[in-house]
């Protein structure tokens, strides 16, 4: 096997490089051929026993290129750049896309390239033309894709190319980061140095940006194979870009830069010169590049319009103004030469640059459209203008040769003005489309360019000091301490190390109220520090920050297609052939009508029009008034603006599909804990089942050593000592509530705690049941009914009655069991969020959505909480294990419901993924929850209302856009065809039709831009006692949106329909509910003098069962007063 490097002459584009690759690769004995266009080099690996060097060189020359052999050598594995993976992922920028027909054409062309994975091809029109594709390196290359796209008439530029191996590695090790160093000189030394630094995974040369002819000329002098191989890796020793993949838990870019510049070996060779940190792939760079590209596109359209207008306006004045004024008309009708008048000569000369210079784009695109079989709008423009121009040329020649008395009228103004108005429309459309991506630009502009680093320096006397140092944000590392002064933006995500302040997070979360921050609080990059100075420890950098993730989500959403877009694509695919047919039929019909004298031209015959020219006007008008672009822009522009508006309000919608799905949701399932409730349970009531626990620890051995109250206190302390010891370290919300209550008794591991927690042995977590462990030699179980049953625990009398009592009060009852017996029932209260009831009532009454609650709690507790916030008890799904939540969603879907699941995105992931729309609420900085299609950054339940309202608003706008686009074409084509001419005697001039066509696209984009005016619904709540039987509570909701204002009364559904109250007896808040007006109550007792003894059932509403040895004092004597 041998490898030869050739210097190739005569290559001008990617088609040339592809031609060489294909031609040489087909030769017997050739293993591979790689052509680097920018370096004008080809590297061929071949079997010299089957093919000779001279034959390869001859093949290249036969293909029409010059080939000069640089050097032949045996391939050295260590020197050759071999792809680590079979597949590569590339991103390209596209130029020339105007509508969905264009995107479809590109998609079809790329899919035809061998080696391309069809499912990976993604072409997006907005915010800027872009192609994402994955392909097999062994079959095709990026050059092959560039050739395919250029062959159908679109511009294409490679933005990035990543081996699939790198992608896999990055996903498997999320702590790996990429950095780019631009090095002025000695790049090889820098690469070698960095390769040996701990924490650096890979170092390679990279070149994401074009460097012009200077780079090409530099490498034409290469004469060795090594140089050619290095060039194959796009390596240059000067002005080089190094891509460094590193573990940011081990080393950072700043450390790499400092150590690299101070290396003695590098310094001995003259140093590296100027070294800068480049950032080619971050969201800020992408946003700047996209903004620059949009600005360039707008300027190009503007220049084309000005050039065309400079010629077409004089044509218009000559034909439409001066020809109607006697003096100028007489001069213009005089002949110049060969029987051609001044009017004909001047309009011909002036319209020709417009036709073939300004209109060249349409000819070029038409050629490629015909070649590819994907007809677009350009072919309509090219045919229409060409017909008008060719007819006018024919008229000029006819008039010159025949010199008739009634000269035929030329139509040069038609073609010139038509092209000018189309270009003007494209200019206005480009300007409007640029505004649709304003959300990304604004988000990117929030980022900070530099940060104030606090560095610890040593003083001569052995003490230390902190110095402030301004550094670029790209050099900030994980673990750095940054100083954020009042009024400054937080540079990146982190945790407050020192200081307190309030921070304005409204720009990211939509929450207008500043958030208090203290030591240990999380802060988000790009938010504004309002008052105090903060020192923050960096936790996330670069693409891992919340802002970067938000931008990425919004970008993905804006470039996605909702299912309804397929409708527009289908129409667009047949639109142009239909219009061509309609234009031809219109022309033929008018010719027939005029020749048979069925129709009369009226005044147009007096103006010099003949039958053919008159019919031609209608045919051309039909061609140019039709607009497939409006259809293609209807959906993506609305999705772009709408998702940007959502991001501004802290609602991240991941694309068009969930946006469309949310519009059709008719059932919402809320997870209870942390979603409808605060997620921070606190201990409510504690019901003691016996006095046995008073004997553990240092307590006296007998209850006789104290009063009933003292015994209660001792038992209660031991209950929480055992419970807190068992739950210590658990992250479960119920465990945190127990730990918090134990703290009130002085039990814990803090220095100020009176009683320390015991060590735990044999700990096991029984999912859905509880926990089991050993504390101080005692077997402790804490859990629900299933825990008691599973562990064969002996339930003391009244255990289940006590649990039911607490559950009816809306508390979650957990039982403490010691040595196989139940000892206490602890009630934990997880209060409903303030806006839970409001959200439920609005969803059910305004959006007509059925609301369900899903929880692992028992049915009684769950129904009590559900009733308190307005959820129908029949829609409570309780006693559900974590792994069963997705099955519950599937069951509802099986009943014909379109379900949205709302949870915290952590243990609800399977259910979120199973639902038609998964909504993760309270995501905070963790916005990249994969299982959720909609991410709400705040914990406000009212954002759920905004989500559904916004999705419906966006979808209404999409429908309106479709209605306008379809209505415009449905009405415009018949009018342009002359359907109203018999009544109005007016022809729609082609240039007016062209202007109308342009306005249709502009109108659709402008319609989508109106979504920026969206305001979230306003919800006003009235509190009173009328609806809650004397208890102050929510009484009336006033819902105000852009479409309506509606009041919502608070009452159970059954009573609103005239039926009986269906609320649980202990949770009824309905007005005038005779059924649940309770006739019994427990009178308050003096806890000090008449406290019940542990185990007495009067505590939970049952008769005292202590018997003759009752030690409850006066509590039993007044146990139940019936009134």
From TrEMBL:
This is P-type Cu(+) transporter. InterPro entries: ATPase_P-typ_cyto_dom_N, ATPase_P-typ_P_site, ATPase_P-typ_TM_dom_sf, ATPase_P-typ_transduc_dom_A_sf, ATPase_P-type_domA, HAD-like_sf, HAD_sf, Heavy-metal-associated_CS. GO terms for cellular component: membrane. It is an enzyme of class 7 (translocase). Keywords: ATP-binding, Copper, Ion transport, Membrane, Metal-binding, Nucleotide-binding, Repeat, Translocase, Transmembrane, Transmembrane helix, Transport. It comes from Mucochytrium quahogii. Pfam families: E1-E2_ATPase, HMA, Hydrolase. Belongs to the cation transport ATPase (P-type) (TC 3.A.3) family. Type IB subfamily. The lineage of its organism: Eukaryota, Sar, Stramenopiles, Bigyra, Labyrinthulomycetes.
């Amino acid at each position: 096997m041998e490898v030869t490097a050739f210097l190739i002459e005569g290559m001008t584009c990617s088609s040339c490089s592809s031609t060489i690759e294909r031609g040489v690769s087909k030769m017997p004995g050739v293993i591979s051929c790689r052509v680097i266009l920018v370096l004008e080099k080809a590297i061929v690996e071949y079997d010299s026993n089957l093919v000779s060097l001279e034959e390869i060189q001859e093949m290249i020359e036969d293909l029409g290129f010059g080939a000069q052999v640089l050097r032949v050598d045996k391939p050295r594995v260590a020197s050759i750049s071999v792809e680590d993976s079979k597949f590569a992922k590339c991103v390209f920028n596209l130029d020339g896309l105007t509508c969905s027909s264009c995107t479809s054409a590109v998609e079809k062309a790329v899919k035809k390239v061998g080696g391309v994975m069809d499912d990976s091809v993604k072409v997006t029109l907005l915010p800027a033309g872009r192609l994402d594709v994955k392909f097999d390196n062994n079959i095709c290359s990026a050059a092959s894709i560039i050739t395919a796209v250029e062959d159908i008439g679109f511009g294409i530029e490679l933005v990035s190319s990543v081996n699939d191996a790198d992608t896999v590695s990055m996903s498997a090790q999320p702590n790996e980061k990429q950095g780019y160093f631009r090095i002025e000189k000695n790049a090889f030394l820098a690469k070698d140095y960095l390769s040996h630094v701990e924490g650096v995974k890979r170092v390679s040369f990279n070149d994401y940006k074009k460097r012009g002819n200077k780079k090409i000329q530099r490498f034409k002098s290469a004469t060795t194979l090594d140089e050619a191989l290095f060039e194959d890796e796009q390596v240059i020793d000067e002005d080089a870009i190094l891509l460094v993949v590193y573990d940011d838990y081990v080393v950072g870019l700043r450390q790499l830069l400092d150590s690299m510049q101070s290396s003695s070996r590098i310094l001995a060779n003259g140093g590296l010169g100027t070294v800068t940190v480049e950032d080619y792939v971050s969201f800020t760079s992408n946003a700047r590049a996209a903004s620059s590209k949009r600005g360039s596109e707008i300027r190009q359209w503007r220049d084309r319009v000005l050039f065309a207008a400079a010629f077409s306006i004089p044509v218009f004045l000559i034909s439409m103004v001066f020809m109607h004024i006697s003096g100028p008309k007489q001069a213009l009708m005089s002949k110049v030469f060969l029987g051609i008048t001044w009017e004909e000569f001047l309009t011909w000369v002036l319209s020709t640059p417009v036709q073939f210079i300004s209109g060249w784009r349409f000819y070029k695109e038409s050629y490629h459209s015909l070649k590819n079989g994907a007809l677009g709008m350009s072919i309509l423009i090219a045919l229409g203008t060409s017909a008008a121009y060719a007819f006018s040329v024919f008229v000029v020649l006819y008039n010159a040769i025949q010199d008739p008395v009634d000269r035929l009228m030329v139509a040069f103004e038609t073609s010139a003005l038509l092209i000018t108005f189309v270009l003007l429309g494209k200019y206005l459309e480009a300007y409007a489309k640029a505004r649709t991506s304003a959300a990304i630009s604004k988000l990117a502009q929030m980022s900070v360019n530099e940060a104030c680093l606090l560095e610890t320096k040593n003083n001569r006397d052995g003490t230390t000091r902190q110095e402030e140092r301004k550094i670029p944000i790209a050099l900030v590392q994980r673990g750095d301490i940054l100083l954020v002064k009042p009024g400054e933006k937080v540079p990146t995500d982190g945790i407050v190390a020192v200081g307190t302040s309030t921070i304005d997070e409204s720009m990211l979360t939509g929450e207008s109220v500043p958030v208090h921050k203290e030591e240990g609080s999380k802060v988000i990059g790009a938010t504004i520090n309002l008052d105090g100075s903060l020192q923050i420890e960096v936790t996330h950098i670069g693409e891992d920050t919340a802002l970067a993730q938000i931008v990425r989500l919004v970008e993905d959403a804006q470039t996605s297609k909702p299912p309804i877009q397929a409708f527009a694509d289908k129409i667009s695919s047949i639109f142009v052939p239909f219009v061509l047919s309609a234009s031809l039929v219109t022309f033929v019909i008018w010719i027939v009508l005029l020749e048979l004298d069925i129709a009369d031209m009226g005044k147009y015959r007096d103006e010099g029009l003949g039958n053919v020219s008159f019919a031609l006007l209608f045919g051309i008008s039909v061609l140019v008034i039709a607009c497939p672009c409006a259809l293609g822009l209807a959906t993506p522009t609305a999705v772009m603006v709408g998702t940007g508006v959502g991001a501004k309000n802290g609602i991240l919608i991941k694309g068009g599909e969930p946006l469309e799905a949310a519009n059709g949701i008719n059932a919402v399932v809320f997870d209870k804990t942390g979603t409808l409730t605060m997620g921070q349970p606190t201990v409510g009531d504690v019901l003691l089942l016996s006095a046995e626990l008073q004997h553990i620890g240092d307590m006296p051995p007998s209850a006789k050593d104290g009063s009933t109250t003292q015994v209660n206190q001792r038992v209660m302390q031991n209950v929480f000592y055992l419970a807190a010891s068992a739950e210590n370290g658990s992250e479960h919300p119920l465990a945190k509530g127990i730990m918090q209550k134990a703290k009130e008794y002085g039990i814990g591991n803090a220095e100020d705690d009176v009683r320390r927690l015991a060590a735990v042995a044999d700990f096991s977590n029984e999912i859905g049941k509880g926990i089991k462990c050993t504390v101080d030699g005692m077997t402790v179980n804490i859990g629900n009914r299933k825990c008691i049953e599973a562990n064969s625990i002996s339930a003391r009398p009244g255990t289940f009655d006590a649990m039911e009592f607490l559950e009816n009060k809306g508390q979650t009852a957990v039982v403490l069991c010691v040595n196989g017996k139940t000892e206490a029932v602890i009630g934990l209260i997880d209060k409903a969020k303030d806006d839970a009831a409001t959200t439920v009532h609005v969803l059910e009454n305004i959006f007509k959505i059925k609301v369900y609650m899903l929880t692992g709690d028992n049915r009684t507790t769950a129904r009590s909480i559900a009733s308190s916030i307005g959820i129908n008890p029949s829609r409570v799904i309780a006693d559900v294990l974590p792994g069963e939540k997705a099955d519950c969603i599937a069951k509802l879907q099986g009943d014909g419901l379109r379900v949205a699941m709302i949870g915290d995105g952590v243990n609800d992931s399977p259910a979120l993924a199973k639902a038609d729309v998964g909504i993760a609420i309270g995501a905070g900085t963790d916005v990249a929850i994969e299982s959720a299609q909609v991410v709400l950054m705040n914990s406000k339940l009212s954002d759920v209302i905004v989500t559904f309202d916004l999705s419906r608003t966006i979808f209404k706008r999409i429908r309106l856009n479709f209605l306008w686009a379809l209505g415009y074409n449905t009405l415009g084509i018949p009018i342009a065809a002359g359907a109203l001419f018999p009544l109005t005697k007016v022809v729609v001039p082609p240039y007016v039709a062209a202007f109308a066509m342009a306005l249709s696209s502009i109108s659709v984009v402008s319609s989508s831009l109106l979504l920026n005016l969206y305001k979230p619904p306003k919800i006003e709540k009235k509190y009173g006692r009328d609806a809650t039987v004397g208890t102050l509570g929510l009484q009336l909701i006033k819902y105000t949106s852009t479409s309506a204002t509606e009041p919502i009364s608070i009452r159970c559904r059954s009573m609103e329909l005239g039926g009986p109250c269906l609320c649980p007896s202990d949770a009824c808040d309905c007005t005038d509910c005779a059924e649940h007006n309770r006739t019994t109550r427990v009178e308050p007792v003096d806890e000090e003098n008449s406290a019940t003894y542990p185990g007495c059932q009067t505590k939970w509403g049952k008769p005292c069962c202590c018997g003759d040895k009752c030690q409850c004092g006066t509590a039993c004597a007044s146990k139940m007063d019936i009134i």
